């Protein structure tokens, strides 16, 4: 079994997290790092890692087979292209780039060199997503009508590079790529339009939240939303299907499913609700629905790294395909456009 030396470029929060996840990996040895921060260099030395002075010196080292890019977002394109041209295989943190054009430039370098480039879309392994995806895949609740996916925090945008446009800050790039990526792999259908509203409640130069609505050709609809000024959260997932509704409340995976035992209620009668009367919104009889717990799906995210090695060794197809990531970046571009012109935009597949 071959062993590969991997160097992490950008040894901040996520860079260090990768070293933890890769501890004891049978084929990947984190042999060094490169970071411009003296504190981060010291932290790496303390962990016994070799510290490179620049990313160019990493790429010039023939003992390094793999690089992992975990710098601020604006540097991903430049480093990825240089790494591929230096015959290194590359794992790149999300968002892969600032827009689709930049990713196309990386993919051109990849096509020219034949080295592997894979984006760390780790939130495909989140249990809340896998649980909802299973309900969708098995058609347990019938056909999907509408899906809403949300993440809310209350601490604003973190006070580092994430607040600045030049570094690729803003919530749409930060979280939008995860949420769109998950939607697109769950619902493999054509998208016809995108409607996006970005929030600037905190008066920073980048968005502190967003609300994006997608329309699929089949009629299915989806909303993704992020807020950073929300002391009360809405559910992480709220999904309506033809035979039921599923909800995941929070990171602790609280939630449940309500499904129909039978479709028609012949005895639906109007109820007095507020200052009016309604038949449409009258609650169902208790015996016509069934409430069940979520069947939580768990999968080990570390299989991402093993898949990367299998792809390098021509033993597997990538879990995260570059064409999927490119489609997400095209949707990100369309979302910014929609916000800027204040209109829903057509999405050309
Ligand atoms: P961070 O600020 O904690 O770390 C970034 C590091 O890059 C810093 O230590 C900084 O000194 C270093 N750096 C800056 N310029 C550099 C250069 N020219 N060469 C070498 N190092 C340089 O940020 P973070 O939260 O770790 O985010 C890094 C990347 O990881 C971003 O792309 C972010 O979107 C991504 N990320 C992904 C996840 C995930 O779950 N997949 C989570 C957090 C962050």
CATH architecture of the largest domain: 2-Layer Sandwich
How many domain modules? 2
Query: What's the overall average pLDDT, rounded?
Result: 97
CATH superfamily of the largest domain: Dihydrodipicolinate Reductase, domain 2
Determine and state the CATH class of the largest domain.
Answer: Alpha Beta
Please provide a written account of the structure:
By secondary structure, this protein is an alpha/beta fold. The protein folds into 2 domains: 4-120, NAD(P)-binding Rossmann-like Domain (Rossmann fold), CATH 3.40.50; 124-253 and 294-299 and 331-346, Dihydrodipicolinate Reductase, domain 2 (2-Layer Sandwich), CATH 3.30.360. It has 9 helices and 17 strands. A hairpin with a 2-residue loop joins strand 11 and strand 12. Helix 4 (76-85) runs parallel beside helix 5 and helix 7 packs across helix 9. It starts with a strand and ends with a strand. Nicotinamide-adenine-dinucleotide is lined by residues 9-15, 34-37, 40, 55, 70-73, 75, 93-94, 120, 122, 160-161, 174.
